[in-house]
Amino acid sequence: MDKEKQTLAQRLLEVKAIKLQPNAPFTWASGWKSPFYCDNRKTLSFPDLRTYVKEQLTQAVRTHFPQAEAVAGVATGAIAQGALVADALQMPFVYVRSKPKDHGMANLIEGELTPGARVVVVEDLISTGGSSLKAVEALRQAGYEVVGMVASYTYGFPVAEQAFAEAGVTLVTLTDYEHVVAEALATGYIAESDTALLHAWREDPAHWMQK
Hints:
Elements: H1 3-14, E1 18-20, E2 26-27, E3 33-34, E4 36-38, H2 47-64, E5 70-74, H3 79-89, E6 93-96, E7 109-110, E8 118-126, H4 130-141, E9 145-154, H5 158-167, E10 171-176, H6 177-186, H7 195-203
Parallel strand pairs: 5-6, 5-8, 8-9, 9-10
Antiparallel strand pairs: 1-4, 2-3, 6-7
Helix pairs in contact: 1-6, 2-3
């Protein structure tokens, strides 16, 4: 296991930013039933953890995307962390809405960058990848070069991995499903008997409750 990914998984579980309820599934906005729920926005309420996530995302940008000239956060979950990362890197920052504002300038991208700027996208979590890659497309349509994306967490769904590959976007995440489940099991947060159910859900989340 990756030590850094294990550490963040542990800290997310400690503040209950990640909840595992194999026997009492959540309902996602997509309508999917899930035994797993991740809310990385909760990390913003804990200064030490907020700083840790900021530093880890910042280091990920420096290591994997040194060519980046600007940072873009994906609304709304990654606006705050994106701004913190941009501040740490002393780079310009914008954020990308899910749809254009319905009044005023009707902006989809809020903020201003140099034309053709090389942008790294900051996201809080990756599920199917749809909203994240929609932000990438908006930035590309606006004339910017997206050099990659960093995110706090990914579920690692095959559909997301395929979507990122097809879009030509390199994704780097601080932790993931495997590390969270392993840490939850090691600390007694879930039982060994829960893991088969969790893995079955992760393999086909859209149809999990129909089986």
